[in-house]
Amino acid sequence: MLDVPSALDLTDLDIESLWTQCRETVEGPVVSHLPRTLWQMAMPKMLLSFLAGGIAGAGAKSAIAPFDRMKILFQSSNMHYSTANAVKLVRDIIKNEGPLALFKGNLATVFR
Description:
- The chain is 62% helix and 0% strand.
- It has five helices and no strands.
């Protein structure tokens, strides 16, 4: 059985009043882990979901960044798309500018 201080009245099980009573007990809070509002209860889960979604989105955009760069280069040039032209384009980019050049413009895409 849980040892409840005598100063704590459990007849009213409203979260707000229970929180206030727990904070006012002399022996210390019994259920100080109870949040005051539903918003405070959901906030850590919402923040975690927000961060997880952001990281997943950034990873997905970064994974397709080389393909997006090739698409933009094909659109802005006179070259027609073919598998041979795509391979040649990737080889030329890596040879002339280095492998990180395939990710040019990715930071702007991730922030968007």
